[in-house]
Automatic annotation (TrEMBL):
Keyword set, alphabetical order: FAD, Flavoprotein, Monooxygenase, Oxidoreductase
Family in the record: Belongs to the FMO family.
Protein name: Dimethylaniline monooxygenase [N-oxide-forming] 3
Species the sequence originates in: Culex pipiens
GO molecular function, one term: flavin adenine dinucleotide binding
UniProt keyword annotation of Oxidoreductase present: yes
InterPro entries recorded: FAD/NAD-bd_sf, Flavin_mOase-like, FMO-like
Family annotation (Gene3D superfamilies): FAD/NAD(P)-binding domain
Length: 173
């Protein structure tokens, strides 16, 4: 299939939305694709860690999961079109099963081949002729690179950046 809108595609984030967006881009024959993921794996909010504070790159550790978390939606509504959750006896599944499903989806459709892990998008700005400049920090060596894309899909989710209220005595905690 020929790409209907030729050009370079950038997807920011390799959680559920980023994986689905990247697969859709690949499905229509567009393979000039880069997916930037700040962590070392796909899965977004479904990645569990018991670590807190900052990671080894000095970035805030995202943690909306807890070790015993089960879904509050039935798995039957959590799959992707054409790629449903595995058939099981129970409808509500452990968060680790959702993460494994995300990894399976990314591998099955070769989306993972387009992911640049440990790449932090620092800035996106328009640069004329409908293009976008994307400045990315390669976390392993702290070097920044600048790339130009025709299309940018922001799929980083709203759970990653902590929103901590300011209140008197906050520093005591």
């Amino acid at each position: 299939m020929s790409c209907p809108k030729s050009g370079r595609y950038c997807v920011i984030g390799a959680g559920a939305a980023g994986l689905a967006a990247a697969k859709s881009i690949l499905d229509v024959g567009c393979d000039q694709l880069v997916v930037y993921e700040q962590t070392d794996q796909v899965g977004g909010t479904w990645v569990y860690t018991d670590s807190v504070g900052s990671d080894h790159h000095g970035l805030p550790i995202h943690g909306s999961m807890y070790s015993g978390l089960w879904t509050n939606l039935p798995k039957e509504v959590m799959g992707f079109p054409g790629y449903e959750m595995p058939t099981q006896r129970r409808s509500y599944i452990h968060s680790s099963e959702v993460l494994e499903f995300m990894k399976s989806y990314a591998g099955n459709y070769h989306v993972v081949d387009y992911v640049k892990f440990e790449h932090l998008v620092e800035q996106v700005k328009p640069v004329g002729d409908g293009q976008w400049e994307v400045i990315v920090k390669v976390l392993k060596n702290s070097e920044s690179t600048t790339n130009t894309f025709d299309y940018v899909l922001v799929c980083n989710g709203h759970y990653f950046d902590p929103a901590i209220p300011n209140f008197p005595g906050k520093d005591a905690f």
